Amino acid sequence: MQRIILYDILSKLPKKGWAPNPSKTRFCLGHKGLPHEIAWVEFPDIAATMKSIGASPTAGGMYTLPVIKDPNTGAVVSDSHAIAKYLDETYPDKPLIPQGAHVLVQTFESMFISTVLKPSFKLLMVRTLEIQNDINREWFIQSRLKMFRENRWEDMAPDGKAQQMWAALKKGLGVVDGWYQKSGGRWIMGDTFSFADIVVVSWMAWFNAILNEQERQEIHALHGGRWARLLKDVNSECNTNLGSFEGHSHSFL
User: Fold this and answer.
1) In DSSP terms, which residues pair with 190 in a beta bridge?
2) Does the predicted model carry a pTM greater than 0.90?
3) Angle, alpha carbons 128-25-10 (nearest 5°)
4) Rounded (10°) CA dihedral 19, 132, 174, 237
5) 36-41: strand order across its sheet
6) Adjacent-strand bridge partners of 175
């Protein structure tokens, strides 16, 4: 079998990876045991690179990552959910999304984003800027200012608001912890591992890559260590090593 090519976003971290959406696909490929390689792309080059391989734009007509190119079938697939669906259809061993649960999994991620991420996105963007390569920084700043309708980067997460955003993120994780407590097992679907768990830990791996040491340790300690444990369990399930709340800061891989 030829290696599937996964397009991912560079950073200045030692092992380069950080982005939550491509991480979802890394976990998926690892779970299925599919050989793959990473093609690194800088932010300003994403659109041109994706057009050159025939990738489709995603939400809002934008070119985003992850994208995979499967030389075994000739398929080029954009968007992490679409990729998970494609992998299940093409390589059905060890399914990622239980039959009939695709919409439920998409809804779960939307709820996770609105509960945990939306109240704190500006703070998380400020943290993410810190790990960007120099070539990406201005592009990242301008694109995020436009996205959040701010005029100055200093207004994204000033001290007082940053503290409120951090508190809101932890409060949101408390809500998600309640969902897991009600599941009856170690996964969100009880004893059934799924793409929904990959969704959660991909954002956790992002936190690990961008947060400072104190913030990482706070996440590590929350809810009886649930998030560090879940990240470890999913890495074990997927034969991967994406992030850890137990090592030093910014140790993504």
Assistant:
1) 187
2) yes
3) 35
4) 30
5) 36-41, 4-9, 67-70, 75-78
6) none
